[in-house]
Amino acid sequence: MEKTSGSQRGTLKVSESVIITIVKNAALEVDGVDRIPAKQFRIKSLLRSTGDLSDIGVTMSEGVCRIAVSIVAKSGYNVVNVCEQIQEKVKAAVQSMTGVTVSKVDVTVADVEFDSRENE
């Protein structure tokens, strides 16, 4: 899947892996995000792998992008606020860096990371 744009100067293509990298970096900038978990191992995903094993999905339809990202949240943060910040930051980053319109950013909290010092 690629976003293609043509002009008199030539063709511009933005690959899915570029969008995934932008999503990952934008999400990790949000306070309260510990990490992006790895995708569950599936043979089909191995065959279609883009090289990044993060649990991020990008779907393009008629030039509009829909993004799904899973995160591991840090304990002590309001996960609703963290997810809303991720949605805003990811949408802004993808749109400003690629020119691709983002219709939705779905965020799933896969786990919560508790600091080992809190458990003592």
* Run of helices and strands: EEHEHEEHE
CATH superfamily annotation? Cation efflux protein, cytoplasmic domain
Shape: elongated
Helix content: 25-40%
CATH topology: Alpha-Beta Plaits
- How big is the Rg? 16 Å
The largest pleated sheet is described as: 4 strands, mixed
Number of strands: 6
> Would you identify the CATH architecture?
2-Layer Sandwich
Strand content: 35-45%
Structural class given helices, strands, pairing?
alpha+beta
Distance between the termini: 47 Å
Tally of separate domains: 1
SSE diagram, text form:
Layout: E1 2-7, E2 10-15, H1 16-28, E3 33-35, H2 43-47, E4 56-61, E5 64-74, H3 79-98, E6 101-113
Parallel strand pairs: 5-6
Antiparallel strand pairs: 1-2, 3-5, 4-5
Could you describe the 3D structure shown?
The protein is of the alpha+beta class and 120 residues long. The chain has a single domain, classed as Alpha-Beta Plaits, CATH 3.30.70.1350. The protein is 32% helix and 38% strand. The strands form 2 sheets. Strands 3, 4, 5 and 6 form a 4-stranded mixed β-sheet that branches. A two-stranded antiparallel sheet has the order 1-2. Strand 5 (64-74), helix 3 and strand 6 (101-113) form a beta-alpha-beta unit. Helix 1 crosses helix 3 (79-98). The chain is elongated, with a radius of gyration of 16 Å. 22% of the residues are buried. The mean pLDDT is 85.
